[in-house]
Amino acid sequence: MSSARSTPDAAGPPAPAVRLDGVSKSYGEVRALDDVSLTVRQGEFFGVLGPNGAGKSTLVEIMVGMRRPDAGTVSVLGGSPWPRDTALLRRIGVQTQSSAFFTRLTAGEHLATVAALYGLDRAAAGRALEQVDLADRARTRVDDLSGGQRQRLALATALIHRPDLIFLDEPTAALDPQARRSLWEVLRSLRGEGRTIVCTTHHLDEAEALCDRVAIVARGALLALDSPGSLVRSLAAPARLLVPADRLSVAQAEGLDGVDRVTVEGGEVVIETRAANRVLVAVGELVGIETVQTRTATLEDAYLRLTGSEQHG
Amino acid sequence: MSAYAAMTRATYLAYVRDRTSVFFTFAFPLLFLVVFGLLFRGQTVNGGLAYINYIAPGVLAWGIGNAALFGVAFTLMHWRRDDLLRLVWRTPTPLPTVLASRYAVALGTGLVQAVLFTAVALLPVFGLHLAASWPAALPVLLLGVTAFVAVGLVVGGLANTPEAVAAIANCVMVPMAFLSGAFYPVDLMPGWLQAFSRVLPLRWFVDGVTDALAGRGGLLGPATDCLALAVFAGLFTLLAARTFRWSNRT
């Protein structure tokens, strides 16, 4: 786990995209955020992970100025997001969980309306549709779009004014695997253009695949902030070896040197070990190395450990 | 396209694409006109105007006020529930520009309702005759729509669901319609009820249209009614500013 706060070095790095200092927020009795401090760097793909109700959405809403923190300071692109600052908002794109679309309009009409609200011409709407690969749906009513298409239209809505800083609240929720992957490509290309992206998700594989750094939040507190790789390594979680149950008995596996735990799941004997190489050789001698599958620790393991959930194989 | 023009277009498209709602906005008041018009055909209220001179302006004002109130209340509730107000909040466009676009659609709807409705009432079978002062109905119409748009903003600011909008708006509109002389000439109501009805904006809207179309009270009649409607519009706009919320989640 690294320090949540970064200190500018002598060379004077660019101002951070977002900086939170001791931010707290309560709703009545419920403490949604408790003394959260973090910095999002310019050009970074920053993930916010946490269980439902962890305070992720509140965190994003405070960053975009939709809510005012009870305590602490917030700086976004060098300015304060509260009270409403339209010059600052012009540089920020937000995709919220509830996709806001104009009633009974087509995708193209919706985006043209949003473009006009930003003082942009219709070409901006066409460009945003192209960007999310939805140009062929311009004449389709928003209500008739599929879940994935709606998600992409919501992204286009957030991108229409070419913001420098983009906030995405669970952008791939309720998408099938193909739609998720295609949205990932859009997000990667945005990162490639040098934009800063702050993205909440509870898909751990998504955070691992996309994010430069992730903040893990639970019960309103910041539990960890680091790159996905560092978080996994700092966990020192056991690796798992999987062998078909008809090839190896639990007793045989437990007899091997270096094995921590053996379980049977879905017809496979699962061997947990912190001495993966040694145990792999030993198991390979017993059943043939090609029948052994290995599973290393993932961000999900780190996440479950940190958020206090019971870890499952 | 300016933000105002784009929002007006979006609001207009959302409105006309809801065919059922459009149909009933126009058909519902006409239905009342046909029923009451045929029922009391050729009759005159004691010492007053022909019955059609009460019922046509009454139903007309009620139909326009009803459409303005319900339409604006539903729109505001939907915009807030679907987070469109938040979307607007993040853009440089001021909120009054967005609300003005909905107001423009309400005014246009009211004007089309008035033309269609008056044309039907002028048919020989109903027998409405317009006095020379009929153009005075236009400022009455403008201020009447404004007042009921303001009431709609209050209702839309309070209600979070379509059910709540319908419940509150009906609770406001149905008793007011009966107490303001929309379906029944005010001149036939007991004196105390006539006096009480002056606190209702629909009473002034009905009176204003009646005065203008029948030439009652010269120009002073419609002018007084316009003044009263302007006061209601101002009061409810102030109230709407207090009930306005950007989001259902506070």
UniProtKB/TrEMBL annotation, chain A:
CDD domains: ABC_DR_subfamily_A. Gene3D superfamilies: P-loop containing nucleotide triphosphate hydrolases. One of its GO terms (biological process) is response to antibiotic. Residues 18-244 form the ABC transporter domain. Keywords: Antibiotic resistance, ATP-binding, Cell membrane, Membrane, Nucleotide-binding, Translocase, Transport. It is a peripheral membrane protein. GO terms for cellular component: plasma membrane. PROSITE patterns: ABC_TRANSPORTER_1, ABC_TRANSPORTER_2. InterPro entries: AAA+_ATPase (IPR003593), ABC_transporter-like_ATP-bd (IPR003439), ABC_transporter-like_CS (IPR017871), ABC_transporter_ATP-binding (IPR050763), P-loop_NTPase (IPR027417). It is found in: Cell membrane. It is an enzyme of class 7 (translocase). GO terms for molecular function: ABC-type xenobiotic transporter activity; ATP binding; ATP hydrolysis activity. Its EC number is 7.6.2.2. Belongs to the ABC transporter superfamily. Drug exporter-1 (DrugE1) (TC 3.A.1.105) family. This is ABC-type xenobiotic transporter. It comes from Kitasatospora indigofera. The lineage of its organism: Bacteria, Bacillati, Actinomycetota, Actinomycetes, Kitasatosporales.
Automatic annotation (TrEMBL), chain B:
The chain crosses the membrane at residues 21-40, 60-79, 100-124, 136-158, 165-184, 219-241. The keyword Transmembrane applies. PROSITE patterns: ABC_TM2. InterPro entries: ABC2_TM, ABC2_TM_bact-type, ABC_2_transport, Nod_factor_ABC_transporter. It comes from the Bacteria. One of its GO terms (cellular component) is ATP-binding cassette (ABC) transporter complex. Pfam families: ABC2_membrane (PF01061). Residues 20-247 form the ABC transmembrane type-2 domain. One of its GO terms (molecular function) is ABC-type transporter activity. It is a multi-pass membrane protein. Keywords: Antibiotic resistance, Cell membrane, Membrane, Transmembrane, Transmembrane helix, Transport. GO terms for biological process: response to antibiotic. It is found in: Cell membrane; Membrane. Belongs to the ABC-2 integral membrane protein family. This is Transport permease protein. It comes from Kitasatospora indigofera.
